[in-house]
Amino acid sequence: MLKTRDQSTNDAGQSAPPREHHAGPLPKRVLLAFVVVAVAGGAYFFFNKPLQPPTNSLHVSGRIEGYETNIGPKIGGRVDYVAKREGELVKRGELLVKLSDDDVQAQLRGAEARVLSSQEKASEAHYQLSVVDNQIAEAQVRVEQSKEDTTAQVDQAEANVATTEAKVAEAEALLSQARSELEMATLRNERYASLVQDKAVTLDEADQARTGKDNAIALVSSRKANLEAARKQLRVAKAGLEMARTSRLNPQMRNAQLAVLKQQRIQAQFKEKSAEHEVKNAKSEAEQIKANIAYLNVNSPIDGVVTARSVEPGAVVVPGQNLLSLIDLDRVYLRGFVPEGDIGKVRIGQAASVYLDSQPKTPLEGEVIQIDPEGSFTPENIYFKEDRVKQVFGIKILLKHPERFAKPGMPADAEISLVK
After folding, report:
1. Are residues 254 and 124 located together in one domain of the fold?
2. Nearby residues of 221 by Cβ (< 8 Å), 6 or more positions away
3. Residue 220, Cβ neighbours under 10 Å: how many?
4. Phi, psi (degrees; rounded to nearest 5) at 357
5. What percent of the chain stands above pLDDT 70?
6. Are 78 and 66 within 8 A, CB to CB?
7. Are residues 124 and 270 in the same domain?
8. Is position 110 within any domain?
9. Could you tell me the residue range of the domain that residue 279 belongs to?
């Protein structure tokens, strides 16, 4: 019995290690059981969770932008004055930039002098044509009366001589008057040229004196031409008188005279048309210069705010150069980006509520007016790489009544209504 107990004791002692060996796998079985329970529970909750109701709006963040209007001159010149700076409001038609008009005013004075001179020439040509017409009419009458006594013809010729002599006297008087005016204009020009060196008069006054002299010279030239024309007519009239006194009238002689007069009429008509064309060109030049003077004032085409000022007084600009940039605060929009997965929900014309950071509780009414036709990656102002690789679509939401609260550059949020 003792041996048996010892054996039992030994057997028990020998069987202890195997008991420790069977105790090791128990934690793994427990862990496996937990995993099975967790997976089963997760599957249960996944397949039995309640469905989320679809949202009725889409959130978009972005910033306020506007349609920019660039302001430039129609002609080049030196900038005298810039009325506004960045951030200032402007009214439609308000003067924004003024260019110097010194050179253009001098051009205008010269053009007006050419208009006056060409009008004088046109008047002279018209007068000469009327004289020839009268002579032709008289010649035609003389052809019909070629068989009559020469007494009446002599009287008429004498009357013509008297008339032309009076015209010569008048032309001489007008020329004398023009020469007197030229002398006065010359003295005035010389005096103002001296005074301007001492700054006693302005450059504009000196320019006006010089222009007055130029006009007086042109007038003297025109009056000389008128006098020469009158003297020529007087010589013709005297020749006619001499012919009437010394020659018998006959149809052949009168017809020859009539032919000569008709040829003179053709020449007079050509001179008249040339003079009228010269007047037209001179007036067109003056009108163009006046238009250029008006273009020196650059006015605002819209009500808005200045976003950029590119020039300062003293700068020389060219036609079309950008001087100022404006944005109409009544036509601003929110520029935002929608993820690719949500862009299919957005439609042109959908209503939206826009919230400004300055007035987060007062939404502004908006409407989707543009969706980019092509996607792009998240805008460059995102700094995390995992966000920059997401494709998005840009949209524009027009603010219907911004009331000038929304200004370009302001951050804003929008809720786009997806309700059909």
Report:
1. yes
2. 117
3. 20
4. -65, -30
5. 80
6. no
7. yes
8. yes
9. 102-297
CATH number of the structural domain spanning residue 397? 2.40.30.170
Q: pLDDT at residue 272 above 50?
A: yes
* Residues 119, 87: Cα–Cα separation, whole Å: 52
Whole-number Å distance between alpha carbons of 24 and 40: 26
Return the percentage of the chain with pLDDT > 90, whole number.
27
Look at the alpha carbons of 79, 83, 84, 90 in this order and tell me if their dihedral is positive or negative: negative
* Residue 199, in any domain of the structure: yes
Q: Please report the pLDDT score of residue 27 as a whole number.
A: 58
Residues 119 and 254 in one domain: yes
- CATH, residue 291: 1.10.287
Q: Residue written as tokens 């089963």?
A: 40
Segment among 11-25, 111-125, 260-274, 402-416 with least mean pLDDT: 11-25
Do 218 and 158 lie in one domain? The reply is: yes
Are residues 282 and 348 located together in one domain of the fold? no
Spatial CB neighbours of 86, under 8 Å, sequence gap ≥ 6: 306, 307, 308, 309
Dist. CA 395–CA 239, nearest whole Å: 93
Question: Starting at the edge strand that comes first in sequence, how are the strands of the sheet with 316-317 ordered?
Answer: 297-299, 95-99, 77-82, 316-317
